[in-house]
Amino acid sequence: MDKVGIKALISPSSFKKSNYYASMTEVIPELANKPEGRGEMNVHYFPKFRHFIIIDRNDEEKSYSKKKPIALMIGVLHDFRGAWRYSDVIKMGTEEDRVKLANIERRVQPDDPVNIQYTSGTTGQPKGATLTHHNVVNNAYFVGRRAGYNEKRTIICVPNPLYHCFGCVMGSLSACVHLQTCVFPAPSFDALAALQAIHEEKCTTVYGTPTMYIDMLNHPRYKEFDYTSITSGAFHFQTQQFKS
């Protein structure tokens, strides 16, 4: 947070076993003393940090609670001290704000930074890689051409996370650039959901990492589905895995 100099942080309250709000209270203990539903930040150790915004699942749970396990609902229906609710922030927008946003969008240039992707830190400390609009669109365009997305109808199964360039650039953005279809099997990787998506949506390309492919190939229900629509995949893996 300090290295990048973020002004605002938008985060889900939790995901799977991770409680992101609780993690933030450990990083910024002052949150516990702030009012509920107010996310203005002013802490000396993060001098540029101004707003903390939580994507709460309250609204989702009201609509989908009958479909979701009770375990997912525990700890969700509560207020967050020191954080704006995303739904409230959206409601704050005025016509003046929309005009201001449109003016900013018109000034954006291809070589302006669009995001900062952090390296995994496998071989050293994580490093922030600043990507420009031209960088990601150019990458998506040529990856798509190399894969033949500009020549034929393609339905891409993308079980990869969208916070990584594989999913967000090679997957969703490349599909948009070449007017192709992306299928996202589940909110996070689920081998069975990926197999079902390939079968039901007749995916022609399947993205994944070696471990994802292994999980799909070894799934006990693997033989229940039809994969004849697949013409290509994307990632390096061992010859024996490919043959299986």
TrEMBL record:
Pfam family, one: AMP-binding
Keyword Ligase part of the UniProt annotation: yes
Enzyme class: ligase
Domain of life: Eukaryota
Key words of the record: Ligase
Gene3D superfamilies: 3.40.50.980
Catalysed reaction equations from the record: a medium-chain fatty acid + ATP + CoA = a medium-chain fatty acyl-CoA + AMP + diphosphate; octanoate + ATP + CoA = octanoyl-CoA + AMP + diphosphate
Molecular function terms from GO: medium-chain fatty acid-CoA ligase activity
Its EC number(s): 6.2.1.2
One BP annotation, GO: fatty acid metabolic process
Domain annotation AMP-dependent synthetase/ligase: ranges: 94-225
Family, per entry: Belongs to the ATP-dependent AMP-binding enzyme family.
Function: Acyl-CoA synthases catalyze the initial reaction in fatty acid metabolism, by forming a thioester with CoA. Has some preference toward medium-chain substrates. Plays a role in adipocyte differentiation.
Protein name: Medium-chain acyl-CoA ligase ACSF2, mitochondrial
Organism: Gongylonema pulchrum
